[in-house]
Write a structure and sequence with these properties.
Helix content is 63%, strand content 0%. The chain starts with 15 loop residues before the first helix and ends with a helix. By secondary structure, the protein is mainly α.
């Protein structure tokens, strides 16, 4: 995982703030896609749950 290797080789301290910021910024596109396609996701889940 790239974010785990974020600290540089010259730094002795772990930059928790920078790692958290990178994690949040990298998850924003996925969250936006879920909000955009929310209706299709729910429709697909309910269509797959119908038996018969």
């Amino acid at each position: 995982m790239i974010i785990a290797n974020f600290p540089s080789q010259f730094s002795k301290q772990i930059p928790f703030g920078e790692i958290m910021a990178a994690g949040i910024i990298s998850s924003i596109p996925l969250i936006l896609l879920v909000f955009i396609f929310q209706r299709r996701i729910v429709a697909g889940l309910t269509a797959g749950a119908v038996k018969g």
